[in-house]
Design a protein that fits this description.
Layout lengths: L1 H13 L1 H14 L3 H7 L13 H5 L5 H39 L5 H25 L3 H21 L8 H21 L10 H22 L5 H11 L22 H26 L3 H21 L7
């Protein structure tokens, strides 16, 4: 739990700022898209967009460091692609094909299915990338998918009725909703929606969808539920209706303390993010306020964690 907390602080509070500093510097060097076009007259004007500012800043690096950065970008791209292809193929094989379609096939068959899934995933990824016009669209799709699936990924720890179909349907529905808003909604001639409205609508549609699938599909088998409960020892009353006689094994940790710890953890992360930002912007008063709130929340969080099982 402490490692997860540190990851979120480092991932959201510390790691983005080198990128943001480069972005702020690019606003000074290239205040408009025309200035980027003037600096790179041989670049096709159709690709001169806001997300070209970062590669445009690379010209200020010395030769050796420029080569290192370019190599790091290529390595990051390759590692990300290979990770998600292997990850996606493992989902297709282990979580879908092996479990629901062919549970007793030879291992060679699973390897073959994994290879086919890998090729299919890269083809789909290539098609989606050709549809995208800028990096912001990709970010909005990922944000829409994450917002839609967030609730089921949280409730699966607290409600026994969540099953594999609940999570699969949430992922599929949220993905389809994200694709609809990015590529279909405007093509139908409908009025554009604010991104915040899209998120809310996507969450409502996805939640209604996976709840319906959950009700229409059977729960996980009792042995799986019992094993999960014994390993996780979930808090709260969400397992009282499972009918497995597990009430006596439910964790005694406080649900209210868990939600308080969640709130304080979010406050730590956001306080660190905005406090660092205000400090970089030369605004010491709000920076000290945000960082003070982050420090106070971190202190309160350390005091709260023993009530949720971390001692």
């Amino acid at each position: 739990m402490k490692a997860t907390l540190w990851f979120n602080v480092a991932h959201y509070g510390l790691r983005p700022w080198p990128w943001i500093i480069v972005a702020l510097a690019s606003l000074v060097v290239y205040p408009t898209l025309d200035s980027i076009q003037a600096a790179f007259p041989n670049v096709d004007p159709s690709i001169v967009r806001n997300d070209l500012a970062y590669p445009a800043m690379l010209i200020f690096l010395p030769s050796g460091l420029l080569g290192l950065v370019v190599a790091s970008l290529a390595a990051a791209y390759m590692s990300t692609i290979s990770t998600h292809l292997n990850w996606g193929a493992s989902y297709v094989v282990d979580d879908v094909y092996r479990r629901f379609v062919a549970p007793d096939e030879d291992e060679r068959r699973y390897v073959t299915v994994g290879r086919i899934a890998t090729v299919a995933l890269i083809v789909v990824a290539g098609a989606v990338s050709l549809w995208l016009e800028n990096a912001l669209q990709a970010f909005q799709i990922l944000l829409q998918i994450g917002a839609g699936t967030g609730l089921v990924f949280l409730l699966r720890w607290f409600w026994w009725r969540i099953n594999a179909w609940s999570e699969l349907s949430a992922m599929v529905i949220s993905f389809l909703v994200a694709v609809y808003f990015q590529f279909v909604h405007g093509a139908l001639g409908l009025a554009p929606l604010d991104p915040a409205v899209q998120l809310v609508v996507g969450v409502l549609i996805t939640t209604a969808g996976w709840l319906a699938i959950t009700v229409l599909t059977p729960p996980a088998d009792p042995e799986t539920l019992r094993s999960f409960h014994q390993r996780i020892r979930p808090m709260g009353p969400g397992w009282s209706g499972a009918g497995l006689g597990l009430e006596s094994e439910t964790s005694e940790d406080s649900v209210s303390a868990a939600f308080l710890a969640w709130f304080l953890g979010c406050t730590v992360v956001y306080g660190a993010v905005f406090g660092t930002g205000y400090a970089l912007y030369g605004r010491p008063s709000p920076a000290m306020l945000c960082l003070g709130v982050a420090a106070g929340s971190a202190f309160g969080l350390m005091k709260t964690l023993p009530r949720v099982g971390l001692r």
